[in-house]
Amino acid sequence: MDVKTVAIIGAGVSGVSSAIHLKNAGLEVTVFERRDVAGGVWVYDNRTALEPSYPSIIPSTGDSPAFDALLKATSRGARRDSPVDQDCVDAKNSVDNNDLEILHAPPGPCYIGLHNNVSTPEMKLRAHDWPPQTPDFVTHDVLATYIQDTAAANDVLSNISFRTRVDKAEKKGSKWEVQSSRLVDGEIERAVQQFDALIVASGHYHAPNIPDYPNLPAWKSAFPSRITHSKVYRSPTPFAGKNVLVIGAGVSSTDICRELGSVAAKIWQSSRGGEYDLLPSMLPKNCTRVGGIASFSTLTSTSLLNDHEPIPGSVILSSGEELNTIHHVILATGYHMSYPFLPHLHDDNATPEHASEEILVTTGQITHNLHKDIFYIPDPSLAFIGVPYHVATFSLFEFQAMR
């Protein structure tokens, strides 16, 4: 396999590390980053992404189906009587009501209090040192700056095409054809380029996983600002004096519960008893660990609530216990593995056990058919950096990039 040109999707730590080591090896590298800055998940944005459908959208549609529909609507030769006609209408309505930049590059899940939970010495990149006297645990802005400084120190910023979204990537003959859209002064510039190889470094935290709990869609429809995914959580301030149910018991859920502890009246953290749930001892005193969710009750009213009124319904746990007087529900229920720019490698109708040898994603829980979580087995000109969970991310992902 003769590789001279490489496309990289994403300019977080995985994409920047990949660009550095490939460029050092003499390859021509182009990094596509839909935001206007490097740093990935650690870049804070006070704006929030549009929420997905309830229950969650299928993995192959990713986190911005409205922008995909907009591209269809603005494509040359698009017909108004085509099957995507309603999508086109919905997309244009979305642009009227929402910032085009948010559709093009949805803000990530970074919240004001986010910090690393693996020490900075364990996260150090071979390509760049931490500044002297960097503490073991730092805030998100320090981590984002470290990634940006690493890119600058290794002369890869010039290789990054910012504000550029990869819409589709497909192998045609011996080349990867990459279709992209760049947002410039409110206008969408589209391009098609070819590369010898493609590296996906787009991260995990884009497409929220919304479980299919009975009656949850009705709660979301009636009280949309009261039912949210943790991706749009930014600070505990809006929850002061409120009763909050946080669903999930992993790292993000526990971190959010700890932040809420200083302002909320009462917190419940719902856990199904998963392998990676954190210990209840890490929760604040006003937070109670409860069991998994069975259903949401039928609402007794859908009238507009004042700020201090709880949602007029209850949440039924698997044990039969009911939780009442809930003001807010935060779903810290994770994300789908999702590569919407590789739609032909998704099979939304298959189970993981029945994934073919070519399929990357089925239910969105794992990425299939990768050798050592990096190389796509049917065609190693496609590689993934940053797929593993529950690891020392920076150092491991750089190690993967060096492979």
Q: What is the CATH first-level class name of the largest domain?
A: Alpha Beta
Give me the Rg, rounded. Answer: 22 Å
Which class best fits the helix and strand makeup? Answer: alpha/beta
Distance between the termini: 15 Å
Task: Give the mean pLDDT.
Answer: 93
The major pleated sheet works out as: 5 strands, parallel
| Count of discrete domains | 3
CATH fold call of the largest domain: FAD/NAD(P)-binding domain
| Poorly predicted sequence stretches spanning 5 or more consecutive residues | 76-94
- Give, in spatial order, the strands making up the sheet with the most strands: 3-2-1-7-20
Helical stretch tally: 9
- Tertiary shape: globular
Oligomer: single chain
Total E-strand runs: 20
**SSE pattern, N- to C-terminal:** EHEHHHHHEEEEEEHEEHEEEEEEEEEEH
**Known CATH architecture of the largest domain:** 3-Layer(bba) Sandwich
Keywords: FAD, Flavoprotein, Monooxygenase, NADP, Oxidoreductase
Protein name: Dimethylaniline monooxygenase
InterPro entries: FAD/NAD-bd_sf, Flavin_mOase, Flavin_mOase-like, FMO-like
GO molecular function, one term: flavin adenine dinucleotide binding
Blueprint (SSEs and pairs):
Layout (H helix, E strand, L loop, with lengths): L4 E5 L3 H12 L3 E5 L32 H10 L10 H13 L2 H5 L15 H4 L16 H14 L6 E2 L2 E9 L2 E10 L2 E9 L1 E4 L6 E2 L7 H7 L4 E3 L13 E5 L3 H10 L5 E5 L16 E4 L2 E4 L18 E3 L4 E2 L4 E4 L3 E2 L33 E2 L3 E2 L5 E3 L8 H9 L2
Parallel strand pairs: 1-2, 1-7, 2-3, 7-20, 9-16, 10-11, 10-16, 11-12
Antiparallel strand pairs: 4-5, 5-6, 8-17, 13-14, 14-15, 18-19
Helix pairs in contact: 1-9, 2-3
